[in-house]
Amino acid sequence: MAQNPQNSMGNIYNNQGIITQGQTGNNTIIQGPVRLQFNTQIGDDLVSKLPAGKTIMLRSIGGRADQAIADQYQQYLQNRGFQVERTIIGTTSSPPDHKITLGNPDAPQMLVIIAPSAN
Protein backbone atom coordinates (compact mmCIF):
# COMPACT_ATOMS: atom_id res chain seq x y z
CA MET A 1 0.00 0.00 0.00
CA ALA A 2 1.51 3.35 -1.10
CA GLN A 3 1.73 6.22 1.34
CA ASN A 4 0.50 9.69 0.48
CA PRO A 5 3.32 12.20 -0.14
CA GLN A 6 3.92 14.90 2.48
CA ASN A 7 2.01 18.12 2.02
CA SER A 8 4.85 20.66 1.78
CA MET A 9 2.52 23.65 1.31
CA GLY A 10 0.60 23.27 4.54
CA ASN A 11 -3.10 22.81 5.10
CA ILE A 12 -5.72 24.20 2.75
CA TYR A 13 -8.42 25.32 5.16
CA ASN A 14 -12.05 24.58 4.30
CA ASN A 15 -10.92 23.28 0.90
CA GLN A 16 -10.90 26.82 -0.50
CA GLY A 17 -9.57 26.16 -3.97
CA ILE A 18 -5.92 26.07 -4.89
CA ILE A 19 -2.87 27.68 -3.40
CA THR A 20 0.17 28.29 -5.58
CA GLN A 21 3.15 30.55 -5.22
CA GLY A 22 1.98 34.11 -5.82
CA GLN A 23 -1.72 33.17 -5.82
CA THR A 24 -4.27 32.18 -3.18
CA GLY A 25 -7.90 31.16 -2.85
CA ASN A 26 -10.82 30.61 -5.24
CA ASN A 27 -10.19 33.95 -6.90
CA THR A 28 -6.71 34.61 -8.16
CA ILE A 29 -4.88 37.27 -6.19
CA ILE A 30 -1.58 38.26 -7.72
CA GLN A 31 0.78 39.24 -4.96
CA GLY A 32 3.07 42.10 -5.91
CA PRO A 33 6.81 42.24 -5.46
CA VAL A 34 8.22 42.09 -1.98
CA ARG A 35 8.96 45.55 -0.57
CA LEU A 36 12.57 46.22 0.34
CA GLN A 37 12.97 46.30 4.11
CA PHE A 38 15.71 47.93 6.12
CA ASN A 39 18.58 45.51 6.59
CA THR A 40 21.98 46.33 8.13
CA GLN A 41 23.75 44.00 5.66
CA ILE A 42 22.25 45.95 2.75
CA GLY A 43 23.19 49.17 4.57
CA ASP A 44 26.78 47.99 4.99
CA ASP A 45 26.95 47.00 1.31
CA LEU A 46 25.58 50.41 0.34
CA VAL A 47 28.13 52.19 2.55
CA SER A 48 30.96 50.17 0.94
CA LYS A 49 29.94 51.45 -2.51
CA LEU A 50 29.70 55.14 -1.58
CA PRO A 51 32.67 57.45 -1.98
CA ALA A 52 33.84 58.95 1.31
CA GLY A 53 33.53 62.70 1.71
CA LYS A 54 30.81 63.25 -0.89
CA THR A 55 27.35 64.52 -0.09
CA ILE A 56 24.74 61.85 -0.73
CA MET A 57 21.71 63.01 -2.70
CA LEU A 58 19.09 60.54 -1.49
CA ARG A 59 15.89 60.30 -3.53
CA SER A 60 13.20 58.15 -1.99
CA ILE A 61 10.30 57.03 -4.15
CA GLY A 62 6.98 55.67 -2.93
CA GLY A 63 4.21 56.01 -0.39
CA ARG A 64 4.38 56.39 3.36
CA ALA A 65 5.62 52.86 4.06
CA ASP A 66 8.35 53.23 1.43
CA GLN A 67 9.40 56.59 2.86
CA ALA A 68 9.66 55.06 6.35
CA ILE A 69 12.11 52.47 4.99
CA ALA A 70 14.11 55.19 3.23
CA ASP A 71 14.18 57.09 6.56
CA GLN A 72 15.99 54.12 8.09
CA TYR A 73 18.58 53.99 5.29
CA GLN A 74 19.10 57.76 5.57
CA GLN A 75 19.68 57.47 9.32
CA TYR A 76 22.04 54.53 8.77
CA LEU A 77 24.13 56.56 6.30
CA GLN A 78 24.17 59.59 8.58
CA ASN A 79 25.27 57.43 11.53
CA ARG A 80 28.23 56.35 9.40
CA GLY A 81 29.32 59.92 8.76
CA PHE A 82 27.68 60.69 5.42
CA GLN A 83 26.04 64.06 4.81
CA VAL A 84 22.66 63.23 3.27
CA GLU A 85 20.34 65.59 1.41
CA ARG A 86 16.95 64.05 0.74
CA THR A 87 14.26 64.48 -1.90
CA ILE A 88 10.97 62.66 -1.34
CA ILE A 89 9.06 61.61 -4.45
CA GLY A 90 5.63 59.98 -4.25
CA THR A 91 5.52 58.51 -7.76
CA THR A 92 7.40 58.74 -11.02
CA SER A 93 6.08 58.58 -14.58
CA SER A 94 8.07 55.44 -15.22
CA PRO A 95 8.58 53.37 -12.09
CA PRO A 96 12.14 52.50 -11.11
CA ASP A 97 13.49 49.11 -12.14
CA HIS A 98 15.50 48.55 -8.97
CA LYS A 99 14.94 49.01 -5.25
CA ILE A 100 18.32 50.76 -4.80
CA THR A 101 20.13 52.59 -7.60
CA LEU A 102 23.48 54.33 -7.38
CA GLY A 103 24.52 57.25 -9.57
CA ASN A 104 27.91 58.07 -11.01
CA PRO A 105 30.58 57.98 -8.25
CA ASP A 106 32.64 60.56 -10.19
CA ALA A 107 29.86 63.18 -10.00
CA PRO A 108 30.30 66.02 -7.46
CA GLN A 109 27.45 64.56 -5.38
CA MET A 110 26.56 60.88 -5.15
CA LEU A 111 22.99 60.06 -6.16
CA VAL A 112 21.29 57.20 -4.31
CA ILE A 113 17.71 56.28 -5.22
CA ILE A 114 15.74 54.10 -2.81
CA ALA A 115 12.42 52.78 -4.14
CA PRO A 116 11.36 49.96 -1.76
CA SER A 117 8.34 48.90 -3.87
CA ALA A 118 10.16 48.79 -7.23
CA ASN A 119 9.93 45.56 -9.18
Overview of the molecule:
The structure is a single chain. With 119 residues, the protein is an alpha/beta fold. It has a domain at 40-114. 22% of the residues lie in helices and 22% in strands. It is built from two helices and six strands; from the N terminus they run ββαβαβββ. The protein has helices at residues 40-49, 64-79, and strands at 18-20, 23-25, 56-61, 84-89, 100-102, 110-114. The strands form two sheets. A four-stranded mixed β-sheet has the order 4-3-6-5, with helices on one face. A two-stranded antiparallel sheet has the order 1-2. Strand 5 (100-102) and strand 6 (110-114) form a beta hairpin. The longest helix has 16 residues, at 64-79.
Strand content: 15-25%
Number of helices: 2
The backbone outline, from C-alpha atoms, is globular
Uncertain regions spanning at least 5 consecutive residues? 12-25
Secondary structural class: alpha/beta
- What does the average pLDDT come to? 82
Our measurement of the CA-to-CA distance between the termini, rounded to an integer number of angstroms, reads 48 Å
User: Main beta sheet: strand number and arrangement?
Assistant: 4 strands, mixed
Number of DSSP strand runs: 6
What strand line-up does the widest sheet have?
Answer: 4-3-6-5
- Rg is 20 Å
Encode the helix/strand succession as letters: EEHEHEEE
Helix content: 10-25%
